[in-house]
Amino acid sequence: MDHSVAEERAGEAEHEAHARSDTAARDATAAQAIDAALIEEAVGGRLEAFNQLVTRHQDHLFALVYRLVPDRDQAADVVQEAFFSAYRNMAAFRGGSVRSWLSRIAVNGAMDLQRSRRRRPSQPYPEFEDESWQPPAEPGIEPENRALATERAGLLASALADLPDEQRNCIVLYDVEGFDYAEIAGIMRVEVGTVKSRIHRGRLALRRALAPHRELFRG
């Protein structure tokens, strides 16, 4: 391929990546504005506004909690209680991302359940037999790629479920949810160094667990 053509294509790809990033940023800003307006209306007594918040965020919260508590019924209960808690404490919301605020409430509920389960041992984690813990697949994805993504996700979810709660929580919050070390430390009430250590140990354990399937995760 001609060098100038390669450079041109590389430039086009970079431009498209920047455009996608800008679009995602604008979408996130717009979503935050809608959420903030709904919170304000709900605090003012409009229940339907809070119901709209539930509709906007329930799938995300379920996917998040199910990664921490891989039992569908228990995860659904945690999410429901998280929304109840959010409704009771709406007046205490001080701005920022409503999604992050709801996620923190749900994560705290999931960790409460984890602690309760350790005190009263129950059944071990179930197998991940379906995709209900995952957000819906992007439209337009080829069936073969979708099947591959599902297989990868199932293996990763199973490996995550085998981690100690503390390591799994930190990895999900950092690698999946995008919280920074300080935010995770605040949620989990530990030092930042402890968060980093748990993420490091958890990643090593995941790498060992997924080693037999390394070909599936390449590319």
Provide keyphrases for this structure.
8 helices, mainly alpha, 219 residues, globular, Rna Polymerase Sigma Factor, Chain: A, 0% strand, Arc Repressor Mutant, subunit A
Outline the structure in words.
- The chain has 219 residues and is mainly alpha-helical.
- It contains eight helices and no strands.
- About 6% of the residues have low confidence.
- The protein folds into two domains: 136 residues, RNA polymerase sigma factor, region 2, helix turn helix motif (Rna Polymerase Sigma Factor, Chain: A, Orthogonal Bundle); 79 residues, Winged helix-like DNA-binding domain superfamily/Winged helix DNA-binding domain (Arc Repressor Mutant, subunit A, Orthogonal Bundle), CATH 1.10.10.10.
- α5 packs across α8.
Strand content: under 5%
CATH overall fold name of the largest domain: Rna Polymerase Sigma Factor, Chain: A
SSE class: mainly alpha
- What's the alpha carbon Rg, rounded to whole Å? 20 Å
Percent of residues in helices? over 70%
Q: What is the level-2 CATH architecture name of the largest domain?
A: Orthogonal Bundle
Output mean pLDDT: 81
Tally the beta strands. Answer: 0
Q: Helix and strand succession?
A: HHHHHHHH
State the shape.
Answer: globular
Contiguous low-pLDDT stretches (5 residues minimum) are 120-133
**Contiguous helical run count:** 8
Provide the number of structural domains.
2
Taking the sheet with the most strands, its summary is: none
Distance between the termini: 23 Å
The top level CATH class name of the largest domain: Mainly Alpha
Relevant CATH superfamily of the largest domain: RNA polymerase sigma factor, region 2, helix turn helix motif
